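Reviewer comment 2.1 asked that we show a complete input and output for one of the modelled complexes. We chose the FE2/S2 (inorganic) cluster case, as it is the one discussed in the main text.
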Amino acid sequence: MKHSRKLVFICNGSDCKKAGAKNLYKELKRMTAEPDLKGSCKFIKTKCMDMCKTAPNVIVGDHFCKNTTAEKVLIQIKKS
Ligand code: FES
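Response of the prediction step:
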């Protein structure tokens, strides 16, 4: 059986934090607690990804979300 839980890496470096990474994380947690998405992703906080100019940065699978919002990340989670 294929394991379908998606890995979502959220940068928690100082620039991304300033750009709202903490709220982004909280928002994503809340959004993915809905019954249709429950247990579908695993969030991992990372150190600086060295892409601070485009903060906040999130990686969903092999897709890099730059300057992102919780809504954009959610769309990517549903797509991948
Ligand atoms: S702080 Fe997030 S990429 Fe540097």
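The chain has three helices and four strands. We note this here for comparison with the apo prediction described in Section 3.2.
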